[in-house]
Amino acid sequence: MKKYRSYILYLLLLISLVGCAEKKLLEKVGLTTLIGYDLGNEDNVKTTAVVRQVNTEFQSQVAIITSENETSQGTRTKINRRSSKKIMAGQLRGVLFGEELARKGVGHYVDTLLKHSEMSGSVLLAVVEGQSKSLLEFEYPDIDDIGDHIYKLLEQNIKGEQMISSTLHEVGHDYYSPGRDIAMPILKKDKELIEISGVALFKNGEMVGKLSAKDSFYVKLIRDNYNTGKLEMMIKGDELPSSLMKNPSDRIDLVFDPIKTKKELKLVNQATPEFDLQINVKARLMEIKPYIDVGKPKNVAKLEKAIGKSLSEELSRVIALSQEADSDVFGFGEYYRSTVRHSDLTQEKWHGLYKEMKVNVHVDFTLLRSGIME
Amino acid sequence: MFNKKFKLSSAKKQPAAEGEKSKENEEKTKSTISPLKSVFIKSVGNAVHNSSDLKVKSIHPNLTLIYIDNLVDGEVLKKHIIHDLLGNTSESPENVLSVLSIPNAKLSGEIDGAITGMMDGTVLIHVEGYSQIVLANIPTKESRALSTPENESQVIGSQVGFNESLTTNISLVRRYIKNPDLCNEEIKVGERSNTAVSMLYIKGIASEEMINMLRQRITDIKIDSLLDSSILEQLIDDNSLSIFPQMLLTERPDKLCSELLNGKLGVIVDGSTMAIVAPHSFLEFFQSQEDINLRWQIATFARLLRFSAVVLSIFLTPLYVAALTFHYEVIPQTLLVTLSESRSLVPFPPLFEALLLELIIELLREAGIRLPSKVGQTIGIVGGIVIGTAAVQAGITSNILIIIVALGALASFTTPSYMMGNVIRIIRFPLILLAGYWGFYGIMFGFCFIIIHLLRQTSLGSPYTAPFYPPRVKDWRDSIIRMPLPFTFKRPSNTRPEDEDKYEPGPVNPEKNEQKVE
Known about the structure:
The structure holds two protein chains of two kinds.
Chain A (H helix, E strand, L loop, with lengths): L1 H16 L11 E11 L5 E9 L7 E9 L2 H9 L5 E3 L5 E5 H6 L2 H9 L8 E5 L3 H6 L8 H14 L8 H9 L6 E8 L2 E11 L2 E7 L3 H8 L5 E8 L14 E19 L4 E16 L7 H29 L6 H8 L7 H8 L3 E12 L5
Parallel strand pairs in A: 1-4, 1-5, 5-6, 6-7, 12-13
Antiparallel strand pairs in A: 1-2, 2-3, 7-8, 8-9, 10-11, 11-12
Helix pairs in contact in A: 4-7
Chain B lengths: L1 H29 L6 H11 L6 E7 L2 E6 L5 H13 L6 H7 L5 E4 L2 H8 L3 E6 L5 E5 L28 H11 L5 E8 L5 E8 L5 H13 L8 H8 L11 E3 L2 H9 L3 E5 L5 E4 L11 H4 L2 H30 L7 H11 L6 H21 L2 H21 L5 H14 L5 H9 L1 H29 L1 E2 L2 E2 L55
Antiparallel strand pairs in B: 1-2, 2-4, 3-5, 4-5, 6-7, 7-9, 8-10, 9-10, 11-12
Family (chain B): Belongs to the GerABKA family.
GO biological process, one term (chain B): spore germination
GO cellular component, one term (chain B): membrane
């Protein structure tokens, strides 16, 4: 019997521990799918939560609850007072920041979200032009569940490589590592639809500027590698010899479909600093206007050169724009820190250097195919 | 730990009891056969308490037959013994023996063995004036005809199963393995029932150590009766307190033979349709005899299906309970709406809901076994359709749980061994409770507990979790997958075979087979 005394003790312990775990029964939890943060009165935060309501007889509906308090977690208890179910954030898919709040700084919110154990790392973050409350509260005739809609809108565009990715995990990384700044998509209410209108540039967690939605391609080209992206671009007519075209025009519009890229970054001068950025782009031509005979290898070589040149110019332009805003969303600083010994790079030190940074962009463009005809 | 102690304590008690018994035995063996007819008849009558089926028949005034009526073959008695002895005039047991045309007749001078033999269908032939009798064994051959194995049916392969007769069962095995090395050791178990237990193994393949161990375990049993091999299995396995069976019970002679040829040992009990196979590892319980009959790709697929079915069967319901009680974060967004909608009418917490449904399924299964076969099917339909749909409409359970529970029950029946299938189904209940109280932590705790328990088990001294722990990579060829026959020429090392190779590993595609018929 002595031998079993310890087993009995364990058994008693197990029985007495029953009920110690906090229960979160699915039907008693109000599932928040989207949260919008705005700046309220006197530095308060105004939180708008999209809570999914489960109903057997009808289709599921969403409730949009807004409350204002000093802290973001404080608003949660306030929202709880207006809901029949306990508000939980475990199924959260997206977090929106009003532009006003984003300009004041999102660092605190990113920090709070990361510390929340329920929160998934794949929550998508975005900035809203204007107030997130008005974006969420508007009754869109074609959208049932605004929380689900916004998440799928962002996810679809990120997966299709049309927009830079801004999951909580990535944003947290950008925020905390010196030599890198946050970039997030910007959402805009366009009449009765929601649209991704651009990319917000941050500096030390504060929004300092924006780029157009089209420019997000170039930001992504420098930040990551492409596998499936799509690009519509224009090259000036005088880049190509007019003999190529039947009807010479001053602009040539091109669309490429699956784009594959490989990039190589090299630091050539530590002091200035100066980078060499070599990007190899392989793509398939989808559409070209006006007609150029891409069946001839000579023409293709000329076209590739012109596209490469045009792409480099665009990239330099985008880098210059973000330099102007003083936001290093590309992560040049991180590369600098990892290659220069004892650089002791801090955010301030890098932003001092960043304005003076020079990047020599070189793009090698290869046309894989020009379409398949039967 | 407990098991060892249990065995030790029972072993300690035995010598004292044995001492008394051996004294009695000595007295009995002293009682020799009386040359006087009347005294002899009386002593036999006393030994069987003048049972009414004890028959005494005198052929001559000095020649007496004594037997138990229902145990001897009347036809043989009449045609051979009585017929042979009627013409016989000389009167000595040796003479009687020479006259009898019964193959296994013998002389005996001891009454105890004679009476035990009489219980097995032996006729005692007493000759007046001699203290020796002739024993002629002519038992009745009452046995059920051979039939298909009911619990272990398979599509491809032999369709014969063991029946209740030990001699038939052994002849079935001998018909598969026509080899003088196939040894059959008969041991009597049960002080009152005197049941014949046959230990089968192939000399030169089976490990001597294991043979000795198993023989020791069977002979050490002190029990009054043994009615079935499943009881013997519980008596001789390594840990009788564990929920997992450590020896296989099979009713397929081909399964037993293939395991014997793998170097395992078999035990057949008289009166039982199941043979015991040992040592048997945990993994092997999920391998069917059919796997070797089918082509290797199909067999591998079937095995993978079976193993995933086991995992599903054990963990699906606990995962449902845990996810709905504690971890709503992990439910995919697309499933969330349907899941919460089907749950919204249910008044119980997920734990209670799951337990209720699991109990209903168990109830149906148990009722299905007990009910007469004609009603059984009806009950299956009533249970499946009426209770299932009605429970959802009444709002007692959710649709999704019905699917999960049914799937789990179905999956547990894919296990070829019925004994192991039971374990897989029962082991779910503690896991559901753990999931309901501590969520995923509870499931993980239960899972670790099961794994640790399995790792501690042995089957006839060999590791239960082999070939994965201890890792024996060569045996993986025939584990959850089945490689083609040219690769599986080795016997499983778990049995420690004396001869490791089943056959010469030849080339995968022998050229000699390429002769074409023109």
